[in-house]
Write a structure and sequence with these properties.
The chain has helices at 2-14, 172-181, 214-217, 237-246; strands at 16-21, 27-32, 38-41, 50-53, 59-68, 73-77, 99-104, 112-122, 132-135, 147-150, 155-163, 166-171, 186-187, 190-196, 202-209, 225-229, 232-233, 250-256, 264-269, 271-272, 278-279. By secondary structure, the protein is mainly beta. It has three domains: 2-85, Trypsin-like serine proteases (Thrombin, subunit H); 91-180, Trypsin-like serine proteases (Thrombin, subunit H); 186-279, PDZ domain (Pdz3 Domain), CATH 2.30.42. Strands 14, 15, 16, 17, 18, 19 and 21 form a seven-stranded mixed β-sheet that branches. Strands 1-2-3-6-5-4 form a six-stranded antiparallel barrel. The protein starts with a helix and ends with a strand.
Length: 282
């Protein structure tokens, strides 16, 4: 049994890649989705063109093809063939207590494996009604974008962040749906992190503003906190994504700056068909 599990884990490890965004020192993980070079990872890992390193050391430039920040998913394309693509399972069939394994590249350790069980299935506070797979697997920076798989090696999630010590993964069925349709939409061009203000209001802290983006032209600054859109307060990350979808190309954002006292407002003309705002994950 141990030998069989080892073989399954090794196959999954060969389907897992390291993803490096060009011009940065950080790295994340990704998964080979098709033998002809389609790679899936997190949107917060792939914010532009990147390089991808395979299990055997081969490295390829990777072009960003699609990005869906609502589900924190992205696809990259490399020019290669015959790659060891992963197999996918049905995440709707998962049960609490089921054995799972995660593979990624945490803290420079290539192809690191951790095992655990499914802890909970469902939504997360602050992230809207979206479904997540929570497992007691040990994740660290660099695991983001790597696979969460069942005991037979079938991918049932993409590891995205750490929540109260548990690994949170985008369900595999959301991943396969994304691969079928791709993604595009309106973009602010910011990296965000959910925060809770002193008065218990929900906000989105701007961590980074992409040069030349609509947010940069507004301007929004790193350190600003977005609190609403169109006069409606944010209560979850998904509220901003919904506001972007409903904006029709022009969004009125409310935000705090500096002493975080008075609420400011800015109208931003959005750009279509490029990477959108993304919630920061571990």
């Amino acid at each position: 049994m141990a030998g069989a599990f080892g073989e399954i884990a090794e196959r999954l490890r060969r389907s897992t890649v390291e993803v490096r965004l060009r011009g940065t020192s950080g790295a994340g993980s990704g998964l080979i989705a098709t033998p002809d070079g389609q790679i899936v990872t997190n949107a917060h890992v792939a914010r532009g063109d990147a390089s991808v390193r395979l299990w055997d050391g081969r490295e390829y430039p990777a072009r960003l093809v699609a990005r869906d920040v609502r589900r924190d998913l992205a696809t990259l394309q490399v020019t290669a063939s015959g790659l060891p693509a992963a197999s996918f399972g049905d995440s709707n069939a998962l049960r609490i207590g089921e054995l799972v394994m995660a593979i990624g590249n945490p803290m420079g350790f290539i192809g690191a494996l951790t095992t655990g069980v499914v802890y909970r299935l469902g939504s997360l506070a602050g992230f809207g009604a979206q479904r997540w797979v929570l497992a007691d697997v040990r994740l660290a920076p660099g695991n983001s974008g790597g696979p969460l798989a069942d005991a037979r090696g079938r991918v049932i999630g993409i590891n995205t962040m750490i929540v109260n010590g548990l690994g949170a993964a985008v369900p595999g069925n959301a991943l396969t749906a994304f691969l079928r349709r791709g993604a595009s939409g309106f973009s602010l061009g910011v990296t965000l992190r959910p925060v809770r203000l002193e008065d218990r209001r929900f906000g989105l802290l701007v961590l980074q503003v992409e040069p030349g983006s609509p947010a940069a032209g507004a301007p929004l600054w790193a350190g600003d906190i977005l609190v609403g859109a169109g006069g409606q307060h944010f209560h979850a990350v998904d509220d901003l994504h919904q506001a972007l979808d409903d904006a029709g190309g022009l969004i009125h954002l409310q935000f705090l700056r500096g002493d975080r006292g008075a609420v400011r407002e800015v109208a931003i003309r959005l750009t279509a068909g490029v990477p959108r705002s993304v919630a920061e994950a571990a």
